[in-house]
């Protein structure tokens, strides 16, 4: 028998169970929609924040100042640094020029004093070599030049105006070294075309007088000395004759500052080169300086500027500024790298967009790389400069290259800040866009140019000084492209020597000049002009990349104040930002406690 009350109770329980089931199902759907809404809001917030970070990253210093009030420290530092570095280069250039001028003038003095009938003409050294080759053609000329050089060396201290002396403390004159390089055996008889040679060479050296007494003969004669020492001057076998000796000199610098004088030991070598065996023996003198430590005791007036201490302190300031600039630029590159990694992780994992290679390269600021190279070279050059100032080394040329190239890069690097203004960025953008086209054009033009270089070197080289070597041939043709010295190049070949080569040279030169000046240069200029016009036409009408489109969705102006919450993190946080896990969403159960099982049940993820 069925109890109606019990049945009603069961029906009521079933109704309540159904209600609880529906409530539970509705709760699941409600929490699911809340979860989905929360996920979207979290993703949207992260996306907006990344968009703001990217937009702030690509702002110029003025915009960053308006966005967050951040002072353009790197810009101020670069302006101060470029002024300081340029001043340092100017001071070093004066000192280097003074030292180099003294060495060159001393070498010219030695040649005038010790080479008989040496002719110093006005003009560039290259042209002087063409017009006035110093050579001998007679045996008597060799004897006269050697006797003249020996006597001038002996009388150096008594006759010269400059502070030159023999490399010997005390009385006497250190002897000169006479060396001969010759073939072991050889005989030439041009009358009956008889030639006999043993091409193995031997070198013999002997002092011109005793090194024990250091007393030179009163009237030196190379002919008598050769006979006394059994040196047979067989010009048929003789390859070269070298006469070496040393002279000391003191470089006294301007007296209005406390520049200490420099002392030098000059190694001089007079060389008679008979390796051509053509009856013409070129004579040359090489002068090699060696820096010596002076034992000076100089009293300066009380009002003399202490320039030595000033330069050392100034070099230290330059090192400090460049080190700070290098650290700031390196820090910016590292921050950009981690911003790139963060952008890739966020954008690609959420299938928003995939960054292309060109878009990734936009995060690499090559201006900073150029400034880092310039700062590094300036620091190394300044350290070497200090070492020179304390007389521990004498590598002026190395320091000049380091400081000169670093200053060039520093001035180029300052152009970065001009690119932020449209009125000044036209040149930089034009060069950037034209560079690939120019390089492709230069490859084609270079092949044509090299063909003319090799042809001129092989065909015209034996008859024309400017084409005598491959390097000179290239330099001559490059000068012709720029319209330099055309008539002298045409007139350099004598018609009587080879009429065929004379006619060939005319065709060769006219073809090269017409082709490169009227065609190649015109096409080259048109490539640049075409790029310039393209840049002007695309200004304001360019097609945005996907990354730029993503960033431009942030419409907040720099003055809006919405960028102040993007405060920079500590430098140590940069290295671990990408290692930190993303915060996992936490959901609350009906009891108010954290419920991670609900998230697992809803999404199916563990």
Annotate the secondary structure layout.
Blueprint: H1 4-57, H2 61-68, H3 73-114, H4 125-131, E1 135-136, H5 139-154, H6 156-159, E2 164-166, E3 177-189, E4 194-207, H7 222-228, E5 238-251, E6 262-273, E7 281-292, H8 307-349, H9 357-361, H10 366-389, H11 396-413, H12 415-418, H13 422-459, H14 470-481, H15 486-490, H16 499-538, H17 546-552, H18 571-574, H19 596-603
Antiparallel strand pairs: 1-7, 2-5, 3-4, 3-5, 5-6, 6-7
Describe the structure.
The protein is of the alpha+beta class and 606 residues long. Helix content is 57%, strand content 12%. Strands 1, 2, 3, 4, 5, 6 and 7 form a 7-stranded antiparallel β-sheet that branches. β6 and β7 form a beta hairpin. α3 packs antiparallel against α11 and α8 packs antiparallel against α10. It starts with a helix and ends with a helix. The N terminus and C terminus are likely disordered.
Write a brief caption for the model.
The chain is α+β, with helices and mostly antiparallel strands.
Provide tags for this entry.
7 strands; 606 residues; disordered C terminus; 19 helices; alpha+beta
**What's the number of extended β-strand segments?**
7
Number of helices: 19
Report Rg: 41 Å
Distance between the termini: 52 Å
Instruction: Calculate the mean pLDDT score and round it.
Output: 79
Strand portion: 5-15%
Structural class: alpha+beta
Reported for the largest beta sheet, the result is:
7 strands, antiparallel
Secondary-structure element order, N to C: HHHHEHHEEEHEEEHHHHHHHHHHHH
Low-confidence stretches: 1-44, 122-131, 568-606
- Overall shape: it is flat
Q: Fraction of residues in helices?
A: 55-70%
What oligomeric state is this? Answer: single chain
């Amino acid at each position: 028998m069925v109890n109606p009350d019990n049945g009603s109770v069961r029906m009521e329980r079933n109704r309540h169970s159904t209600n609880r089931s529906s409530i539970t199902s509705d709760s699941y759907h409600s929490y699911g929609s809340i979860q989905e809404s929360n996920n979207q809001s979290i993703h949207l917030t992260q996306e907006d924040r990344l968009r703001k970070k990217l937009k702030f990253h690509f702002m110029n210093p003025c915009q960053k100042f308006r966005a967050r009030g951040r002072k353009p420290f790197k810009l101020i530092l670069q302006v101060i640094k470029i002024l300081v570095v340029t001043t340092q280069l100017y001071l070093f250039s004066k000192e280097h020029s003074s030292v180099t001028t003294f060495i060159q003038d001393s070498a010219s003095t030695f040649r005038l004093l010790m080479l008989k009938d040496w002719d110093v003409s006005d003009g560039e050294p290259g042209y002087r070599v063409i017009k006035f080759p110093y050579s001998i053609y007679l045996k008597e000329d060799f004897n006269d030049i050697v006797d003249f050089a020996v006597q001038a060396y002996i009388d150096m201290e008594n006759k010269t105006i400059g502070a030159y002396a023999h490399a010997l403390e005390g009385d006497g004159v250190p002897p000169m070294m006479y060396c001969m390089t010759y073939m072991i055996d050889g005989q030439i008889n041009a009358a009956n075309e008889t030639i006999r040679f043993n091409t193995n060479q031997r070198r013999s050296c002997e002092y011109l007088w005793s090194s024990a007494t250091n007393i030179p003969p009163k009237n030196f004669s190379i002919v008598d000395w050769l006979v006394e020492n059994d040196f047979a001057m067989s010009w048929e076998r003789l390859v070269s004759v070298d006469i070496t000796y040393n002279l000391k000199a003191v470089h006294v610098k301007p007296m209005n500052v406390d520049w200490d004088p420099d002392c030098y030991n000059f190694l001089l070598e007079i060389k008679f080169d008979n390796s051509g065996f053509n009856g013409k023996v070129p004579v040359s003198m090489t002068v090699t300086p060696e820096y010596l430590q002076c034992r000076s005791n100089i009293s300066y007036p009380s009002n003399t500027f202490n320039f030595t201490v000033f330069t050392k302190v100034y070099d230290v300031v330059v090192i400090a500024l460049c080190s700070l600039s290098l650290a700031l630029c390196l820090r910016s590159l590292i921050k950009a790298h981690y911003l790139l990694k963060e952008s890739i992780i966020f954008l690609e994992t959420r299938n928003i967009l995939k960054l292309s290679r060109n878009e990734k390269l936009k995060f690499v600021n090559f201006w900073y790389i150029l400034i880092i190279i310039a700062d590094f070279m300036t620091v190394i050059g300044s350290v070497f400069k200090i070492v020179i100032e304390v007389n521990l080394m004498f590598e002026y040329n190395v320091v000049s290259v380091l400081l000169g190239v670093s200053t060039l890069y520093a001035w180029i690097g300052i152009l970065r800040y001009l690119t932020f203004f449209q009125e000044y960025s036209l040149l930089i953008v034009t060069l950037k866009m034209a560079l690939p086209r120019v390089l492709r054009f230069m490859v084609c033009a270079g092949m044509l140019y090299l063909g003319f270089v090799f042809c001129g070197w092989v065909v015209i080289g034996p008859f024309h000084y400017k084409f005598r070597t491959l390097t000179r041939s290239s330099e001559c043709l490059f000068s012709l492209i720029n319209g330099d010295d055309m008539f002298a190049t045409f007139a350099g070949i004598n018609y009587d020597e080879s009429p065929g080569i004379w006619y060939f040279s005319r065709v060769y030169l006219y073809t090269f000049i017409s082709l490169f000046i009227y065609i190649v240069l015109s096409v080259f200029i048109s490539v640049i002009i075409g790029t310039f016009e393209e840049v002007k036409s695309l200004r304001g009408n360019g097609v945005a990349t996907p990354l730029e489109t993503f960033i431009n969705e942030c419409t907040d102006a720099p003055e809006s104040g919405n960028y102040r919450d993007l405060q920079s993190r500590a430098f140590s946080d940069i290295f671990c930002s990408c290692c930190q896990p993303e915060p996992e969403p936490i959901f609350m159960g009906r009891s108010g406690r954290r419920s991670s099982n609900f998230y697992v049940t809803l999404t199916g993820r563990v």
